[in-house]
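4.2 Preliminary Data

To establish feasibility before requesting continued support, the project team ran the inverse folding procedure on a target of 120 residues. The structure was first converted into the token representation described in Section 3, and no sequence information of any kind was made available to the design step. The complete token record follows.
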């Protein structure tokens, strides 16, 4: 990754990583590395999740009962922990998605000049 690409990456707001993990696991169970790669790919390489952020977030979500963990074997035949969205996590994903929509809308309203808002 070039220095320019590194500088263009966006730091995640606290709580956003939880939402991204829950959304990623909606697609099915995955191990940590696969979760991080999925977030990176789906964001067109803008968001990069470091291990130092990912694993504490996964443990926090397990504690809250939003995801569960099970031992398994990865696609390259290595032992791995697979994380799965729980029914409680599915409900929380809906709550968090709604909160994010409100947050993003509020930021957009602030960033849009007043004269553009009145014309819309």
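Position-by-position output of the design step:
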């Amino acid at each position: 990754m070039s220095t320019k690409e590194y500088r263009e990456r966006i730091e995640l707001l606290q709580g956003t990583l939880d939402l991204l993990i829950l959304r990623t696991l909606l697609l099915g169970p995955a191990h940590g590395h696969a979760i991080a790669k999925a977030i990176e790919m789906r964001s067109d390489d803008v968001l990069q999740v470091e291990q130092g952020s990912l694993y504490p977030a996964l443990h926090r979500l397990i504690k809250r009962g939003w995801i569960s963990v099970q031992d398994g074997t990865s696609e390259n035949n290595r032992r791995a922990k697979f994380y799965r969205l729980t029914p409680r996590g599915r409900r929380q994903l809906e709550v968090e998605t709604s909160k994010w929509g409100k947050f993003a809308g509020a930021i957009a309203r602030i960033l849009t000049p007043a004269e553009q808002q009145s014309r819309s």
